[in-house]
Amino acid sequence: MRRREFIALLGGAAAAWPRALRAQQTDRMRRVGVLMSTAVDDPQDASRHAAFAQGLQELGWTIGSNLRIDYRWGASSPDNARKYASELLAFAPDMMLASGTVAVAAIKQTSPTIPVVFVNVIDPISLGFVESLARPGGNVTGFLLFEYATSGKLVELLKQIAPGVTRAAILSEIGTASASGQLGAIQSAASQFGVEIRLVGVRDAREIERGITDFARGSNSGLIVVGGTQVREHRELIIGLAARHRLPTAYYNRLFVEAGGLISYGPDTIDPFRRAANYVDRILKGRDPADLPVQAPTKYELVINRKATRALGIEIPATVLARADEVIE
Predict the structure, then answer these.
(1) DSSP state string for 128-146
(2) Are 29-145+269-298 and 148-268+301-328 in the same CATH fold?
(3) More confident residue, 1 or 103
(4) Is the pTM higher than 0.70?
(5) Are 239 and 208 in contact (CB under 8 A)?
(6) In which band, very low, low, confident or very high, does the pLDDT at 10 lie, cut at 50, 70 and 90?
(7) Looking at the predicted structure, is the pLDDT value of residue 229 above 90?
(8) Span 301-325, mean pLDDT?
(9) Percent helix, strand, coil in the chain (nearest 5)?
(10) Which of 50, 66, 146, 192 is the most buried (most CB within 10 A)?
(11) Which helix H or strand E contains 310, and what residues bound it?
């Protein structure tokens, strides 16, 4: 073989090596661990996981062919989350998807270096998960649950459906960083609409029942329920107390309205799983989480329960009905 032909052949082989390596990385079975902060019977999780799988499939990943996904549920317990994070990490996944603050914290404690994409986390900066939203700076990135400013919309919504409300109890996990951010937005909106605010803690069922019952003794009263683990776990109690005391209530999540609550305005918590598939795809193909900015929600939804409005004798304004994404009959 002449020297010129040999060099050409060698150059062609060298150029083919990276392509072959990339093909092997894409074609081999990859593994993703998914740790949920919710319970295994959470009514929205099936839709979340379906959205995640669909997003991955659209990007060329087929579960059981070139991708395996392992799921575990922490049920809002830090101890459970750490236990199941260890189980998932024992499978040697390429990366992790974490839903909720408890899940992210458990993974970081168990394996500080594995790439993590989170969904439905409120304040990843104050929690120490990322350095900034634009430049996460480490091995963690993902999708916010909501932006604090949107919490003020709950006050506006409450006044629109119940104009006579002049005082509102805010059900919140008092003392947490996320609660402080939400309350700031609510207090600002409340001053604009002439609504007096009172905080009600949600550490356990007894505190919730006592707080709502005491507050309901006053007139022109309503409730605003903001995000938090305890609020979500005690949603049936909260909905029942609001109905018993005939309190117009605005919730942060449609889950409450589907269970009989009056009205909700908040982010679509399923859409981030579909969007997370894009980040998972990019990281599996070699992107660094540090270079993928944390993203805010793009979809918010207004949901109304007609049965609850009739029980309270509330006539929802046509302007509010026209904006509703769903009206549950």
Answers:
(1) TS-S-SS---SSEEEEES-
(2) yes
(3) 103
(4) yes
(5) no
(6) very low
(7) no
(8) 95
(9) 45, 20, 35
(10) 146
(11) helix 306-312
* Residue 60: exposure state from Cβ atoms within 10 A (0-12, 13-18, ≥19): exposed
- Rounded distance, CA 48 to CA 35, Å? 13
Compute the distance between CA of residue 144 and CA of residue 141 in angstroms, rounded to an integer: 10
Q: In this structure, what DSSP letter does residue 71 have?
A: E
The confidence score (pLDDT) of residue 148 equals 85
% the chain with pLDDT above 90: 78
Q: Do the Cβ atoms of 294 and 136 come closer than 8 Å? A: yes
Q: Between β-strands 300-305 and 263-267, what pairing exists: parallel, antiparallel or unpaired? A: antiparallel
**Exposure string for 169-193, b = 16+ CB within 10 A, e = fewer:** bbbbbbebebbebbbebbeebbeeb
Q: Count CB-CB contacts under 10 A for residue 81.
A: 28
- Note the pLDDT of residue 3: 40
Q: What average pLDDT does the chain have?
A: 90
CB count within 10 Å of CB 47 equals 12
Give the tokens for residue 260. 């009989």
Q: How far apart are the first and last CA of the chain?
A: 81
* Residue found by looking up tokens 């929690």 in the block: 127
Closest CA to 262 of 252, 249, 244: 249
The CATH homologous superfamily for domain 29-145+269-298 is: Response regulator (3.40.50.2300)
CATH architecture of 148-268+301-328: 3-Layer(aba) Sandwich (3.40)
- What percent of the chain lies above the pLDDT cut of 70? 91
30: its two tokens: 């990859």
Q: How far is CA 141 from CA 172, 182, 327, in A?
A: 26, 22, 34
Tens digits of residue pLDDT in 232-291: 889 999 999 999 999 999 999 999 999 999 999 999 999 999 999 999 999 999 999 999
How many residues would you count in the chain?
329
